[in-house]
Amino acid sequence: MNNYEQTVYHELIRWRRNVLKRSGLFKQLSKKTQTKVNDMIPEKVHSMITASIKSMVKATLTGSEMTTNKKAAAASSLFDKDTWLKEKCASYRKTAVAEGAGTGAGGFFLGIADFPLLLSIKMKFLFEAAAIYGFDTRQYEERLFLLHIFQLAFSSDKHRREVFHTMENWEFEKKNLADMDWRMFQQEYRDYMDVIKLLQLIPGFGALAGAYANHNLMDTLGETAMNAYRMRLLVFPSQDYDY
After folding, report:
1. What is the pTM of this model?
2. Total domain count for the chain?
3. Disulfide engineering: 92 pairs with which of 75, 107, 125, 205, CB 3.0-4.6 Å?
4. Structural domain span for residue 40
């Protein structure tokens, strides 16, 4: 390892510790409340939401695949890749902030429209991230890894640990993955977003809340994507955890 890679290695150790630690009491209580609410929702409704999110994500994946610049970074150093990724994240963050402010200013109905728009921005960014680190998203397993990054960024404690374990042992685990658990995918993401985005639906306050929320959400996704791909590029021994 060169000096930069050694620095990244230690950053990965700290990042992994943060990913696996338990959330604060407020988030834990919020998740318990959301789980109770989800249990009250009829299965037919869950199935409809799952089908809608699955279709939305797959359509976004297809569009992002077609518009991603794949010329890139296979020959560059890890420092160059990280620098490029941070620049891309800053660009997408500006787009997300503008989109959040615009839809938040419109109150309830435009606030709802923020959901698919922000999802599209996030997925497009993840395709760019994969290309920067030299991974080919034409391969099905790489699109699955991309969705695992998404889940790692926007999930509750328990599911985040399970996703991290899969990603940390990706070369082995990917052989056993036929498809996403779309029910889990949509429920974890929806529950995560409920708390963060609720204020965006309030007229008069939604623009500020939407911009702030989208800024933080893109920062979270950017950090998660960068470290997830770093973890694959560096020799990073897996460890056992008490889940």
Report:
1. 0.81
2. 1
3. 125
4. 3-233
